[in-house]
Predict the 3D structure of the following.
Amino acid sequence: MKECFADLHIHVGRTIHNRPVKITASRSLTISSIMEEALHHKGMHMVGVIDCHSPEVQEEIDLRIKEGTVRELPGGGYRYTSEKGEITMIAGVEIELRIGRGAAHFLAYLPDRTSFASFRQWYATKVKNVHLSTQRMYADLAQLIEQVEIHGGIILPAHAFTPHKSIYGACVDELSSVVDVSRLAAIELGLSSDSRLADGIGELRSLTFVTNSDAHSTAKIAREYQNLYIKEANFTELVRALRREGGRCVAENYGLHPQLGKYYRTRCTNCDELVAQTDSPRCPYCGKEGKSVITKGVYERFLEISTQAPGTHPPHRPPYRYHIPLEFIPGLGPGRMKKLLAAFGTEMNILHHASYEQLEGAVGEELAARIERSRTGDVTFLEGGAGIYGKISME
């Protein structure tokens, strides 16, 4: 088996005709810039691009195939090749569904252009604008799963515990109340969760957990990812890894410490104070009141819905490695980042392979020590919440 670092949730900001896809994403985030950043700077082996349903995104893929920089793989997926190496792209779509008491996002991945073109014909009849990302689908979850399966694809809940647009955070207390859990390929934890918290929910025992960036800019690519053990980087092997077949698996999850996530704790959106209570719409600090004032944190939501002790891991659950992206490290600005990339090539090499001595030689003792402390978790966290990321302290 081969090591395969994979970030399976990256959005497209603009098409090659400079039209928007993900409204909130960077204008510079295109198929080509995703491939370049993920390969050359991040050191990824596989990326999932979530907005491939857009006709103009597919047009760019077709153009790259015609140019010869991209080719379809026999096992599904697309291989981008440059002078510095190659990376596999898995084509996907993020979909919003109304479920229970709220709305939730789901990620569907399909193997090739033919399957995606056929799926798009059905999808376009269920949304208002097929050109834009994360559209509300006017169908139910059963219909969506059926169509994805008919076209040889897989589906999983996105950022499943965040307070907005997620199955547990906004819709239901039990996933099994709305879907046969065995029909899902995996479940995406999201930036404010981890395996320890999620394994407090007994009905998720059989599912594989994935950790992805949900990147809206190139800088955010690979802030969360997983290490797959697979034979080749393609769609078929990805599916087998998620199903834990034939020795393939998610060997390690790499994610932000939940306390760094921007929805980890309950917080007042008016005064930014963390609050202990979650059952009142009124902030005890500033007195502001309203439905949108108090944003319930992921941690507090787990306290409500967990059915067993956190960390009750099934035997197949891989280690969850707390990953502090380089951008969170104090003192690591663009100049020093440039030196590190010049010395080690990619962020994966800096985070996983460079020794302390090598880091010290590139950027000096103080910054090397901070990177080493971030790799070992020897930091203090200032908790995030209500859309504000947490911070790390090395005091």
About this structure: The chain has a mean pLDDT of 94. The domain at 327-378 is CATH 1.10.150 (DNA polymerase; domain 1).
